[in-house]
Amino acid sequence: MRKILRTTIATLVLPTMFFGVSGCSMTGSGSIDNEGDSRRVSNVVWNNQVDTDFRDLLSSEISSDETRLVFIRKNDDDLEQTSANISVNNRYQVSLHPGNYTAVNSCVGNNRLSAHATGFKDNDLLADKKDYQLDKGQTYFFYIDMDNTGKSTLEQITVASALPLLETKRYQSHQVSRVVPNCLAPIMTSPPVITPLPVITPQAPVLAEKVTIDLEVLFETDMAIVRPDYYSKISEVADFMTQYPNTMVTIEGHTDSRASDRYNQALSQRRVDAVKEVLITQFGVVSERLSAIGYGESQPRASNDTAAGRQLNRRVVAVVEERARN
Fold first, then answer.
1. Which CATH number is associated with domain 211-322?
2. Tell me: the pLDDT tens digits for 81-101?
3. What is d(CA 210, CA 325) in angstroms, rounded to the nearest whole number?
4. How many CA atoms are closer than 13 Å to the CA of 122, on its beta-carbon side?
């Protein structure tokens, strides 16, 4: 490729040398003058490179329907015919030389970008194309490298990476600018009128008849502390109350006949109060929906003469019933 590119330099037609695209050729045998930053073909004169502060460029306002693309070319000593033909959406923009940068505005949305060596002379503006989705009012930076075989690399970089690179680059003006944004103006539409659906308040289910739930909470002897092992059973009461939000719960406590009536009544009350507290603190039940009554040994459901009977009598139950409606 290097040999081909060297040969190409000697045989270039004038338009290819200065415009980067053979399709932009000029007729006639006009004179050529390349001196410093100036380029001239017959009566056409332009500055190939200009000194400018890239900060001024980046601070300039971008139209709301456009996006700004900045192309930065690596500093290297590649042959002139490895200059990079930059195209945007299949339209030639500039033949970017090493150590330069250039900028162009384009339409928002999908942009198809390509960098292709001038020396190939095939005008393939879609060679090595890449698609980028670009937002309005934003500036995007692209770093370009072209090796001495003409192989190109076009990579999007961050602003943090781009700014140090721009410090050492000169701005390259466009020999031919065919990227003329003709972006569609934003379509202003009135938001659709949405008629809110009528709010239908669902009726809470009604508990038809009283329900008794055996909590199966066991206590240590002479203790009124609910062990966490029994929380899962107590949670069934909270879930049931959530399902029927207009219900009240009475927690009833019972003991066997051992010890005195007075002692057993006080012990049963302490225990149902403990269960009530678990419902409030652990499961968020409001206290207004709860009551707790200790019956002591007054309501046995089996004989206290046997161990099995006494076990049945030591119980805590939750009685759930519908509240009277106003």
1. 3.30.1330.60
2. 567 888 888 888 888 888 888
3. 15
4. 9
